[in-house]
Design brief:
The structure holds two protein chains of two kinds. Chain A is of the alpha+beta class. Chain A folds into three domains: 169 residues, Aldehyde Oxidoreductase, domain 3, CATH 3.90.1170; 326 residues, Aldehyde Oxidoreductase, domain 4 (2-Layer Sandwich), CATH 3.30.365; 138 residues, Aldehyde oxidase/xanthine dehydrogenase, molybdopterin binding domain (Aldehyde Oxidoreductase, domain 4). Chain A is built from 19 helices and 30 strands. Chain B is globular, with a radius of gyration of 15 Å. Chain B is of the alpha+beta class. Chain B has two domains: 74 residues, Ubiquitin-like (UB roll) (Roll), CATH 3.10.20; 70 residues, [2Fe-2S]-binding domain (DNA polymerase, domain 1, Orthogonal Bundle), CATH 1.10.150.120. Chain B has five helices and five strands. In chain B, helix 2 crosses helix 5. The chains are: A alpha+beta, B alpha+beta. The structure holds FE2/S2 (inorganic) cluster (2 copies). The site of one FE2/S2 (inorganic) cluster has 12 residues of chain B, from loops.
């Protein structure tokens, strides 16, 4: 179904506050007596810390304290997987994003002014900036406790790779490189913490994982989890990027607040944010693929090295997704895949919308086109021959038989709508006589939903119906700006058959509801929605119980805000049923839990049912290139994805457009060059994100095959929309210029190519 | 020195004439709807209206807007809370995700429509060129501008 905005009204529970400027983000809060903190960064990427002298800084106007790792009452290091990430660096510098001290002053300006007065006594030690070099056994170790600079390793061993080699008529090899992209959320990190009179450290922060933040803060302070309360306020974008770093910003503000017994705010400027926050992992991917003349893929051998930078963060999970999806959405009988996450002294890498799939898709969706060209068959025919279909078995041995496999449907939708075959002959292939080069390209993918075998996957929801029939709803999912609270409200409204205006999403806090895991991996709707449906089922039972007790009958059922007796006769409407519940002292309250269906994984073979369900998609792009300047103009962008069910169509379209845009920016321009490990970007003037005028009109197609694995029938869409535009653009650029560009960002490759031609 | 903000006059002491307009709005007037995304004049999230023109308040000092009329996002809706048609259109069209760019976008839209009540989609697209949105891909913001323009023309 093509999405059109005509007559659709978006629903967002937070829209009025955001459009009137009354929505309060972290930095918009102040408290009486509030102090301000500022970070002191390491000037070099690798050093021993011999001492930090704050005597001069402390004399600066307004400065009240300078804290270092020695002042931390709890653990200096923490981490979601490996505890290697220091709140403040203690004895060693591993990256220029390391914070060595915090200056606290009456005003932010005073704190910043005192930063240069903190004297750092550092002894430089040799740094490692190249992951291949870092992997060598003789290289010095970044984290001696870990025993290796290989942070993690994953593999897949399927079939018999040597047999695959023998069975192949043609073998192709290709290396791809991807870039270090910055999230560039519009709101920089911010935290405001204070120690409440009841002894609880209260944290307001711009972060996307309140429960993880709570663990970071509690660990730093040496507190129990019950003594830290993280309240979530509107957040100005996250995209996976407000996890570890954002949690540490909160932990640092909490540390100052704890030591000084005053409210402390730590708001980042853009430069600090870009210097310290983790990026998307740059990968090197070396592929070898064997083919039969008929077009069937015989084997894939691939080695991937991901630069994880100085700290582990979620590198093992990101690279795991790359491992599971290393062959893209294709059936491959023989697979040999090795994936390494590596420590270096570069700014570290972590979660970023897409989470290990954009790198793989960028490579594999070009590789299949290279293969098709070698075989002399069309790229679309080649994809149809090899793509997964209903009941296919994935390379990790998972049978795709629990949901509708709609990959072909997505691809056909996009190719028909863009009229792909008719436009192919118009492509320029670097025609010397043309004033501009035209190209069209597309890419397809499947994507495992939610965390899969990466982590525990369950969530809860509380539905608390008030005596007047209005409802307080709460789930363990965090609103990242994508509208997940609104989606939960709509799901509950539908389940109970009541107007959405009756439902309020309760101001969330980590002390109200059990840890629901992180709102990443496009798991908001599927996990939070699942828990909401479960809670709705339970609360309906409670309502029936109330009516049964009040009327002295049995066997009532609830449907669309009405209660029926055993004979099917209506005995109460919603409001009278709720009144009966309270009269009979039965709370219409429920706690619902959704546990994701079981998944499995064997680390040694790389086999298992990696994800409990999958989503399918296709995106296409038309563009032109100026043969003289290399300037690229996007002309048209389309996407089709199967998200199971469109819960909130206008917001869903927003996920499409936003994901396609971010994917196009990743494909064309986004990169963080480093100088001795230090990011050479500091703000939006030297980190190019797409602006309105860089974009064409976009079209979104919703494919809705309700997913039986999801109680709400919907699945996530935030990440699938991002992971395809870069390879689609690469394929279009090939048809425009006649050249394959195997490295991100693509615009740089095109520029370099044009310059080379002109010389 | 007097600055009028959302219809209210404020007397400015010379001692703070060099203060950034964005910070003054946020810290002194507690008008925190004006957001700071970059603080160097390239993201547009701090956009306010100064005598009808969309300007970046992080690049302005108070002395730059002396005697001028400033409108912030808080000044867009009516005193009784009724939303401005631009605000309503942003809500209806799904133009809001994280909302951090929204105040600046609304004010850039307002400046456009004051000057050109019947923009084309391409003109709407150009008008928000200086405003970065990392969430929406801009398309629904442009939808909102077109809808607001139509509603304002129709009164
Ligand atoms: S904060 Fe003023 S333009 Fe970005
Ligand atoms: S809605 Fe998030 S930056 Fe525009």
């Amino acid at each position: 179904m093509k999405y059109t905005s005509d007559g659709v009204k978006a629903f967002r529970n937070d829209a009025v506050a955001k459009v009137t400027g009354t929505a309060k983000y972290t930095d918009d809060y102040t408290m009486p007596g509030m102090l301000h903190a500022a970070p002191v960064y390491a000037p070099i990427a690798s050093a021993k810390i011999n001492g930090i002298d704050s005597a001069e800084a402390i004399q600066m106007p307004g400065v009240l304290a300078v804290f270092t790792a020695k002042d931390i009452p709890g653990n200096v290091v923490f981490g979601q997987i490996i505890k290697d990430y220091p709140t403040l660096a203690l004895d060693r510098v591993r990256s220029t994003g390391d914070v060595l001290a915090l200056v606290v002053a009456n005003t932010r300006e005073q704190a910043i002014a005192a930063i240069p007065s903190v004297k750092l006594n550092l002894e430089e030690i040799p740094a490692l900036f190249d992951p291949e070099l870092a992997m060598q056994p003789e290289s010095p170790l970044l984290h001696p406790d870990h025993g290796s600079n290989v942070c993690n390793y994953h593999c897949v061993r399927t079939g018999d790779i040597e047999q695959g080699e023998r069975d192949s008529d043609i073998i192709i090899e290709q290396e791809f490189k991807t870039s270090r992209a910055e999230h560039a959320y519009l709101e920089p990190e911010s935290a405001l913490c204070y120690l409440r009179p009841d002894g609880v450290m209260e944290v307001l922060g711009s972060m996307q994982h309140p429960f993880s933040t709570r663990r970071f803060v509690a660990s730093t302070l040496g507190f129990q989890l019950k003594d830290v309360e993280v309240r979530t306020v509107p957040m100005g974008g996250g995209f996976g990027g407000k996890d570890d770093t954002a949690a540490l910003v909160c932990a640092r503000a909490a540390l100052c607040a704890y030591l000084l017994k005053k409210p402390v705010k730590l708001t980042y400027n853009r430069e600090w944010s870009m210097r310290e926050s983790y990026k998307r992992h740059p990968y090197t991917l070396q592929y070898r693929m064997g083919l039969k003349k008929s077009g069937k893929i015989q084997f894939v051998k691939v080695r991937m090295v991901a630069d994880g930078g100085a700290y582990c963060s979620v590198t093992p999970w990101v690279t795991w997704r790359s491992t599971v999806q290393c062959c893209g959405c294709y059936e491959v009988p023989n697979v040999h895949c090795d994936v390494y996450g590596v420590y270096t002294n570069n700014v570290f890498s972590g979660a970023f919308r897409g989470f290990g799939s954009p790198q793989v898709n960028f490579s594999i969706e070009q590789l299949v086109e290279i293969a098709a060209a070698k075989l002399g068959i069309s790229e679309s025919e080649f994809r149809r021959i090899n793509m997964v279909h209903q009941d296919s078995v994935t390379i990790t041995g998972q049978k795709l038989d629990t949901h509708t496999v709609s990959l072909k449907q997505a691809m056909d939708t996009v190719l028909n709508e863009v009229d792909y075959e008719a436009k192919l002959p118009l492509c320029s292939f670097g025609n010397k006589d043309a004033d501009e080069w035209y190209g069209i390209g597309y890419a397809i993918s499947y994507r495992g939903m939610s965390l899969g075998a990466e982590g525990t996957d369950f969530n809860s929801a509380i539905v608390n119906i008030q005596p007047d029939g209005s409802v307080l709803l709460e789930t363990g999912i965090h609103e990242n700006g994508q509208g997940s609270e609104s989606a939960m409200i709509l799901i509950l409204a539908e389940e109970l058959g009541i107007p959405q205006e009756l439902i309020r999403y309760r101001f969330p806090s980590t002390s109200n509801i059990p840890d629901g895991g992180t709102t990443v991996a496009s798991r908001g709707t599927i996990l939070g929605g699942g828990a909401t449906v479960k809670a709705a089922e339970l609360v309906k039972q409670r309502i029936c119980e109330g009516v049964e007790t009040a009327l002295g009958i049995k066997g009532c059922t609830y449907s669309k805000a009405l209660v029926f007796n055993a004979e099917g006769k209506q005995v109460a409407d919603y409001f009278s049923a709720i009144q009966m519940c309270y009269r009979k002292q039965i709370y219409p309250y429920a706690f619902g839990v959704f546990q994701a269906p079981r998944v499995s994984w064997d680390e040694h073979t790389g086999h298992g049912n990696a994800y409990f369900t999958w989503v399918y998609g296709c995106q296409a792009v038309e563009l032109k290139v100026n043969p003289k300047t290399g300037q690229i103009t996007l002309l048209n962008m389309l996407a089709a994805h199967d998200m199971g069910k469109a819960v909130n169509p206008a917001m869903l379209a927003g996920q499409f457009y936003g994901g396609m845009t971010m994917g196009a920016g990743y494909g064309l321009y986004e990169d963080t060059p480093l100088q001795d490990g230090n990011p050479q970007i500091s703000n939006y003037h030297n980190y190019r994100v797409l602006r309105s005028t860089d974009l064409p009109e976009m079209t979104a197609y919703f494919i809705q095959n309700p997913d039986p694995n999801s109680p709400s029938k919907a699945k996530g869409i935030g990440e699938p929309t991002l992971e395809l535009m870069a390879p689609a653009i690469a394929n279009a650029l090939y048809r425009a210029t006649g050249v394959r560009f195997n490295s991100l960002p693509l615009a740089k490759g095109v520029q370099d190519y044009i310059k080379g031609q002109q010389q | 020195m007097i600055i009028t903000v959302n219809g209210t006059e404020h007397r400015i002491e010379p001692s703070i004439a060099e203060k950034s307009l964005a910070l003054w709005l946020r810290e002194d007037l507690m008008l925190t709807g004006t957001k700071i995304g970059c603080d160097i004049g390239v993201c547009g999230s701090c956009t306010v209206l100064v005598d009808g023109k969309a300007l970046r308040s992080c690049k302005l000092k108070l002395k730059d807007v002396a005697t001028k009329n400033v409108i912030t996002i808080e000044g867009m809706s009516a005193a009784d809370g009724t939303l401005h048609p631009i605000q309503q259109a942003f809500m209806d069209c799904g133009a809001i995700q994280c909302g951090f760019c929204t105040p600046g976008m609304v004010l850039s839209t307002y400046a456009l429509l004051l000057e050109n009540p019947a923009p084309t989609r391409a003109q709407a697209r150009s008008a928000i060129k200086g405003n970065i949105c990392r969430c929406t891909g801009y398309q629904q913001i442009i939808d909102a501008i077109m809808q607001a323009a139509q509603q304002m023309r129709e009164g």
